[in-house]
Amino acid sequence: MAGFWPDKREIAAYVLLKERLGSRFNIGDALDVLQQYYPKKAAMNILKRLVKLGLLEKVGPYEYATKDLWEYLKEKSYEYLEARKKRYSSSSSSS
After folding, report:
1. More exposed terminus of the chain, fewer Cβ within 10 Å: N or C?
2. Closest CA to 19 of 5, 36, 7
3. What is the pLDDT along the chain (95 residues), one digit of tens a residue?
4. Is 64 helix (H, G, I), strand (E, B) or coil?
């Protein structure tokens, strides 16, 4: 399966950022929000992971935009289901 699924820490951080800062924000504001719950290094790692997962998009040197969570989940679900379908059809045809 292409990509990864976010864990509860990333989902919680995503929701927190979206609720407090909206759909666009800068890294300073994001760190201010996340550092209420995580050390600075962990907060930076969470932001990097959210970008890698595709939940955040880096739109400038210090600016991020959130992706739509429903669209993200739909995309990842279809990727997962497609991978399952390929694995299932190859294993059932070899039996």
Report:
1. C
2. 36
3. 445 789 999 999 999 999 999 999 999 999 999 999 999 999 999 999 999 999 999 999 999 999 999 999 999 999 999 999 988 887 776 55
4. strand
Cβ contact 56:65 at 8 Å? yes
**What 3-state DSSP class applies to 56?**
strand
Q: What is the DSSP string of 15-58?
A: HHHHHHH-SEEEHHHHHHHHTTTS-HHHHHHHHHHHHHHTSEEE
Nearest to 38, CA basis, from 9, 64, 76: 9
Class of domain 8-93 (CATH, top level):
mainly alpha
Q: Where are the domains of the chain?
A: 8-93
CA distance 42 to 59: 22
What pTM value is reported for the model? 0.82
Cα dihedral: 15, 17, 22, 24 (round 10): -130
